UniProtKB/TrEMBL annotation:
The gene is LOC108933691. It comes from the Eukaryota. Pfam families: fn3, I-set, THB. This is Immunoglobulin like and fibronectin type III domain containing 1, tandem duplicate 2. InterPro entries: FN3_dom, FN3_sf, Ig-like_dom, Ig-like_dom_sf, Ig-like_fold, Ig_I-set, Ig_sub, Ig_sub2.
Length: 1162
């Protein structure tokens, strides 16, 4: 059986499954370091997925798809590029049939790595692929969302708790009503518990998380949710899940799902919303859930779209529409501005919540424009045209405005809605026919598709796209408006909007003036997308841009940012370190550009530089200069200029290096050799070399007693010198200076050094007494602080008696002690001694140390271990005798205690030289306790304890009674022994004898209670039982023996069915075998039936079912999608029935849900 360890990769969306617990050295499980990118391409083009994998041994890469296989070599080409190390899957001439979720697997012997990638195929642009595009639209309409497994009765949906954990308190009631939960008190209690658990888990990775905003659909067709979060580790992985499945996200709005981060603010967005995007979205940091929110997209369509309205100034204008399903409210907008009911607008909803109206009161010329109704992700737009209240057609215009609010309009809406529903039903029927025809091999499918839809999948007749569009086009509107854009000066900027009809054109305006294409401004149109590109943004390009088409318009603001910046050449020069000599001036100059006003600050080693006598800062609109006058060595460090304006901050770093002469060499000077012919000395290098390395040392010498100094020589940078021009017995003094390229340091002068005189070591510290005995004293000491420049050969140890002035050598002078400890054995018992030690080097012995403390040669106080046990059991009335042997000098004080209190007068204590005895002539139970003897004198103390227990043979327990509650078992109970309260170590032993046999058998021992259950009782046999009381002395007499046949015991072997081993949950890969088993017991033998989703399987030949001695097994020979679901086993006999169930899921295809296993006796 393999060990499976699942973990996430560092790459989001990649899951690693490891087969071994510990990888061999140098080996690794597979990983996908660069995952394939999801694609959205047109029909007929080539789709290419590229991935890079790692692992040792090299993993094998395979590809699969959710719906279908990749075995056709003409459609799917899998290869490996040696040059780039990429594994590639190519799908040439892609069609809508290839639109699917593809999976990449990297496997080796230690595990596998998997990731998913989505291929979306859009409709082709040419006429040749039109029918294929129409067919794709039908297929999209027939795809339904995968339903989650049904919730067990009585269970709470896990998503319910996930939503509550991330919701505001004001939303609790709404969420409870949506999930049918009514026990609010239990909900709050459970929710508080879950919040504490989540906070503990989040504390591992997150400092704090606040301002959680649930997901909401924006006006531009995107859905967003956001929160503030501070991570403990900024490198922690952030994962996004939808309905439990990990999904990829981008960071620059290049993917469908994106994440942006501003300071601590995390914003997740979903663009180009589709009904399939609805679900539960969750954000995890590593393996901890941070936030959950549910996106609900109502499956609503506009049965009757809005229509253009012409109104006379001063009259009311009405826009209305009809939805396919009820909605309590929709969003009304005018030129990208949200409208609300008030003095200007009325919003009316019908009782069935299908018809929605917007009334513009007292229409004015300013009210003209494009009005949009948003329902879920669907929108409908129309234009309002306002005419002056004058002219010949005044009466007719007023009448037209009033008609929009009459009942005739509602009648027309109902009629149009019914017609539209009929058309949608026809489209649905035609779609089913088309799919059926496409699955066959005839040619009728194409004809059905062509007659059912137009170019955009709208209901129509047999005409082409242009004819259908002209019949359906009620005026263009914006499917997605402009968004505000922020761009850097000198960088390109784009503004894009999307129209509902690709045949509409429009005009771009900037600050109310019409834009014309120039070299720097490019206007392009790609289908329904209209784009304005500014190639090189200038400050003058900032402003409000507007795009107008057919009376509708959308606006956005371009903000050209000009943060501070440095010229690259100037920055390169500034970054080079500046080197000056001490006393000179240092100048730093930096040119910059950026939007005014600019704030310029200079820093040195993180501290801001302000004007003072030695610091001067001059700043103009284009550059800033820092002058540091009379620099000293301490002024060296990091120089930073920081420039800030409203758009950002920029910094530049440099270094200042002030060169100076080195500091003096460091002492103390070490005398390496001092003989009659030479003096060799050594010193330490200067603490600061002044920024330049020391090249030479300059030495001078003076003979003590003379006034002149003799220049010796300049030696290279090694800090040692050997002077051979010396006279024996004379003293010399040396001056040493360090020299570098910047100059010569101050001098360092040595102490007087004599030529020919040996350097002796200092005296060691006084010896310490480690331990003392009557025949031996152990000493230790430390080495001298100064060895005199010579190697220490050993130590000479001396002793003297108290009151004497004579020191006696312990070791021979020519045999020094190598170690820094010694055991002195030449001592007399009872005599006080003190010791001193002298270090011996190559030059000879140094000064002796100070004397040690006085120490007496005698044994320390000690209690000898005897053969007597520390625990004794004494029978009541016998003698208690405890002997203790010890060694101590002088004779110690001896104290006996019982349980920490001095012993009573009944106890006799006898003390002799080296021995102490405790005697109790006639013991009683009260003498039980812990006896402690303390032996102490001036030099210490020792203790030893004995546990004495005085007791007697226990009395037998009381009569035994029998009780039978379970067939095949008998429960014995008896009265306590009278000695149980007197002896806390008393316990019981139970014995049994079958009357057909002679011997007694022990059933249980060391029982500290008065009850015992005997199992495996054979019906029809006679048994005798005895119970003994036991303690540390021995056994009691047995309790009165009872015959079990004296009590009539009726044992019934018939039992209802019960499951000994229930079914277990299974997760099997598709195409493999799956084994299920359970164990059931019952008498009579129960009848066992297997069910799959409440359908009996006993007669199904696709399942192999066996029942051997109560072990029920079922084998699914080849697991397929239809085998997923709940499996149940029901066992029945005349006494009852029991059932057991478990879930089987297909691995890799279905979402992982919490599955419940239960066994239910009936």
């Amino acid at each position: 059986m393999w060990l499976v360890i699942k973990k996430r990769s560092r790459v989001p969306g990649v899951m690693i499954t490891q087969y071994v617990e510990q990888l061999p050295k140098g080996k690794s499980a597979p990983d996908i370091t660069r995952k394939p990118v999801s694609l959205t391409i047109n029909e007929g083009k080539m789709a290419i997925f590229r991935t890079v994998v790692t692992g040792d041994p090299t993993p094998t890469v395979t590809w699969r798809r959710n719906n279908g296989d990749l075995t056709d070599p003409e459609k799917y080409h899998a290869k490996y590029d040696d040059r780039t190390g990429e594994n590639i899957l190519e799908i040439p001439n892609v069609s809508v049939d290839e639109a699917d979720t593809y999976k990449c697997f990297a496997t080796n012997e230690f595990g596998k790595a998997t990731c998913n990638v989505i291929l979306n195929v859009t409709e082709g642009k040419n006429t040749a692929t039109q029918n294929q595009g129409l067919e794709m639209d039908f297929r999209k309409m027939t795809v339904s969302k995968k339903k989650p497994p049904p919730k067990k009765e009585g269970e709470v949906d896990p998503q319910f708790w996930e939503l509550l954990l991330s919701a505001d308190r004001k939303d609790y009631e709404r969420i409870c009503l949506e999930h049918g939960f009514t026990d609010f008190r239990f909900m709050l209690k459970k929710l508080n518990q879950l919040k504490k658990e989540r906070e503990e888990e989040q504390a591992k990775y997150v400092e704090n998380i606040t301002n959680l905003k649930p997901i909401e659909i924006k006006r531009d067709g995107r859905a967003e949710f956001e929160f503030d979060m501070e991570l403990k580790d900024p490198n922690s992985n952030i994962f996004l899940f939808k309905d439990g499945e990990m999904i990829d996200y981008g960071k620059d709005n290049e993917m469908k799902h994106n994440m942006t981060k501003m300071d601590k603010r995390y914003t997740f967005s979903i663009k180009d919303l589709e009904p399939e995007d609805a679900g539960l979205y969750q954000v995890d940091v590593e393996n901890t859930n941070i936030f959950s929110t549910e996106l609900k997209i109502p499956p609503v369509e506009f049965l009757v779209e809005m229509k253009d309205v012409k109104a006379v100034e001063g009259e009311d204008s009405v826009f209305d529409c009809t939805l396919s399903c009820p909605l309590p409210s929709i969003t009304w907008m005018r030129n990208s501005t949200c409208l609300e009911a008030g003095t200007k607008y009325d919003i009316i909803v019908s009782e069935d919540q299908l018809k929605h109206k917007l009334v513009v009161k007292s229409t004015k010329a300013l009210d003209k424009g494009t009005y949009t109704a948003l329902a879920g992700i669907r929108s409908s737009s129309a234009s309002l045209i306002v005419e002056d209240d004058s002219g010949q057609d005044k009466h007719s215009k007023r009448r037209g405005g009033k008609t929009d609010r009459s009942g005739d309009r509602n009648t027309n809406l109902d009629k149009e809605a019914q017609e539209h529903q009929a058309k949608m039903q026809k489209v649905k029927d035609d779609k089913e026919s088309a799919r059926s025809a496409r699955e066959g091999k005839g040619t009728g499918g194409a004809a059905v598709v062509a007659s059912g839809t137009g170019r955009e999948g709208r209901p129509g007749g047999h005409g082409n796209d242009s004819a259908l569009s002209s019949g359906m086009n009620h005026g263009a509107h914006f499917a997605r408006g402009l968004s505000d854009v922020s761009a850097l000066i000198g960088q390109p900027a784009e503004m894009v909007c999307m129209l509902s009809n690709e045949k509409c054109n429009g005009v771009w305006y900037k600050d109310g003036k019409k834009l014309k294409p120039t070299d720097g401004v490019v206007v392009t149109k790609d289908g329904r997308y209209c784009k304005l590109t500014i190639k090189n943004c200038k400050e003058s390009d900032s402003g409000k841009y507007r795009f107008e088409t057919d009376g509708g318009k959308t606006e956005a603001v371009l903000n050209v940012r000009d943060p501070p910046k440095f010229d690259s050449k100037d920055l390169g020069k500034f970054s080079e370190p500046a080197m000056v000599r001490a006393g000179e001036n240092a100048i730093f100059k930096m040119c910059f550009a950026g939007r005014k006003p600019l704030k310029v600050q200079w820093y040195k080693d993180g501290d801001e530089l302000l004007d003072d006598p030695n610091i001067k800062v001059e700043t103009t609109s284009t550059h800033s200069c820092l002058l540091l006058s009379k620099c000293q060595r301490k002024d060296s460090g990091e120089i930073k200029i920081k420039i800030k304006n409203e758009f950002g901050t920029t910094e530049a770093l440099s270094k200042l290096l002030v060169l100076d002469k080195p500091t003096p060499p460091q002492g103390p000077v070490e005398v390496i050799e001092s003989s009659a012919k030479c003096i060799e000395i050594k010193w330490r290098q200067p603490k600061d070399d002044g920024g330049s390395p020391v090249t030479h040392y300059i030495l001078e010498r003076q003979q003590v007693g003379r006034s002149c100094w003799k220049h010796l020589e300049e030696i290279p940078g090694k800090p040692t010198y050997k002077d051979t021009d010396v006279d024996h017995g004379r003293k010399y003094c040396y001056r040493i200076r360090a020299k570098s390229a910047e100059g010569v340091s101050e001098m360092m002068e040595t102490e007087d050094i004599m030529a020919g005189t040996k350097a002796f070591p200092n005296s060691p510290a006084a010896p310490k007494v480690v331990s003392a005995f009557k025949d031996c004293i152990n000493l230790s000491w430390t080495a001298p602080t100064n060895s005199g420049g010579s190697y220490i050969l050993g130590y000479h140890l001396e002793k003297r008696k108290k009151g004497s002035n004579v020191w006696t050598s312990i070791n021979p002078v020519d045999e020094p002690i190598k170690d820094k400890k010694y055991a002195v054995s030449d001592v007399v018992e009872g005599t006080e001694y003190e010791f001193r030690v002298t270090a011996v080097s190559a030059s000879g012995p140094g000064e002796p140390s100070a004397p040690s403390h006085l120490v007496v040669a005698r044994d320390p106080t000690n209690i000898k271990k005897t053969k007597e046990e520390n625990f004794k059991v004494i029978r009541v009335g016998n003698t208690v005798r405890i002997n203790v042997t010890f060694t101590a000098s002088p004779f110690p004080d001896i104290i006996w205690l019982k349980d920490g209190v001095p012993v009573s007068k009944r106890v006799t204590i006898s003390n002799t030289e080296g021995t102490s005895q405790l005697l109790i002539p006639t013991s009683e139970r009260s003498d039980t306790g812990i006896y402690t003897v303390i032996v102490k004198n001036l030099f210490g103390q020792e203790t030893i304890s004995f546990d004495i227990r005085v007791t007697d043979d226990p009395k037998s327990p009381g009569p035994v009674t029998l009780e039978q509650n379970v067939p095949g078992t008998v429960t014995l109970s008896w009265a306590s022994s009278p000695d149980e309260s007197l002896d806390n170590r008393l316990h019981y032993m139970v014995c049994v004898r079958d009357t057909s046999k002679r011997g007694w058998q022990t059933l249980a021992d060391r029982l500290f209670n008065n009850k015992f259950t005997v199992t495996n009782i054979t019906p029809g046999h006679e048994y005798q039982f005895r119970v003994y009381a036991k303690n540390d002395i021995g056994f009691s007499e047995p309790s009165k023996s009872l015959l079990i046949n004296n009590v009539l015991i009726t044992i019934k072997f018939q039992t209802p069915p019960t499951f000994l081993v229930p079914l277990k949950m299974h997760s099997a890969p598709q195409g493999y075998e799956c084994h299920m088993s359970c164990a059931v017991r019952g008498n009579p033998v129960p009848h066992v039936t297997w069910y799959h989703n409440n359908i009996s399987l006993n007669t199904n030949t696709n399942y192999y079912i066996t029942n051997t001695c109560g072990v029920c097994s079922m084998v699914i020979l080849r697991v397929g999608p239809s085998d997923n679901g709940e499996y149940k086993v029901i066992a029945e006999n005349p006494l009852g029935r029991a059932e057991c169930s478990a879930m089987l899921t297909l691995r890799g295809k279905y979402l992982t849900q919490k599955r419940h296993l239960h066994c239910l006796p009936v």
